[in-house]
# Entry
Amino acid sequence: MTSMGNTRRMMSVGLIGAALALTLAAPARAGETPTAATGGTTAHWELTPTGTDARFRGLAPVDRRTAWAAGSKGTVLRTTDGGRNWRNVSPPGAAELEFRDVEAFDTRRAVVLAIGEGEASRVLRTEDGGATWTESFRNTDPGAFYDCMTFFDRRHGLAMSDPVDGKYRILSTRDGGRSWRVLPTAGMPEALPGEAGFAASGQCLVSAGPRDVWLATGGGATARVLHSEDRGLTWTATATTVPAGDPARGVFGLAFRDRTHGIAVGGDYRKDRPSPRAAAVTGDGGRGWRASETPPPAYRSGVAWLPHSRNAALAVGPTGTDLTTDGGRTWRTVDTGSFDTVDCTPDGSCWAAGEQGRIARLGRR
# Structure
C-alpha cells in the first residue's frame, strides 16, 4: 500500500513532468496554453473563476487545495478546493487599499501587505480564514513606501520599504505578523540615487531557509540584489546584469530554491519598451550574477522554481509565461496569457495570478 507521503511525491513528480512537457510546445494564442504532450500528458494553465476584475499581484498557495490571493481594491480571495471556488475574504473597509503581497501559513492564517505612501502602507492579519482581520502595522512615516514581505517560518518575517533617508527600511516580526518593529539601519548599505523596490509581484523580498533573505532593486544606475544572512540586520549589495538606469527598469522578482541558487527577473515594465537581459542567475547566494544566455523576450515580474526540481522554473509577466529547464540559463515562452506573479508549493502545485481577476493553476490533461 502506498503511503500518503509517497502518494503526494508521485503527484508532485507527475505534475513536474507535465510542466516540463511545455518545453516541447510552441507559443499559444493570448490567454491560451500550448498543448504539449509527453506520454499523453499535457501541461496548461487552468484559469479558475474568481468573480472579480481585481488585479492580483499577491499570491500565496499553501498546497494543491489551498491558496490565497491579494490585489487591488482591497481584495483578498481564498480557495480550499484547488481553485474551483474562491471566497471573497476581503477586510471590511479596505476598498481603497492596494494589496500587493500575501503570506499564508495554512487555510486559516495569512498576512497581507498594502502598499503606498504614508498610512496607505499597512499590514493586516487573519487567524480565521479571513472572517476577521486585525491591522498589525500602519506606517506613519510619510517618507516610507512598503513594497514586499517574506516569512522565514510561521513566526519570523520581514517587510521592506523604499529608501528612507538614503537606506531601505526593514520591518521585522517575531510573532507571525501580530506585531512589527523597524530594524536598525546601521547594517544597510546606502541606496543608489533613484533606487527603489518594485511592488509588482510580492517577490522583491524573498527568503530561503531560516535566516537568508534577498531584496531586489531598480530605478538606479544599476539593478542590484541585497542579501542578508541574519534576518535583515546586515546586508551586502551586488550589481546584477538586468538593465536599470530608469525608474521603470530593474529587478522585479526573485526566487531562491536554496540559500545559493537564485533567479532574478525584470526588465522595463512599459509596454512600448524592450527588455533585453531580463533574467539573471546566481549560484553563490547572490554574490555574483550572470545574465541568462537566452532570457525571456520581454519584461517579467514573477518567478518560481518548480517543486522538487533543481533546474526548472517558471517566469511570468503581462505578455506571457516562460520556462527554463537549465536553472535559468535559457528560457522559452510557453504561454502568452497575462500574469503578474507565480508560485509553487511543496506538494507539487503551481499557481499564477494577474490582471482582470486572472488566477490559474498549472494542470494536466
Notes: The radius of gyration is 19 Å. The first strand starts at residue 37 and ends at 38.
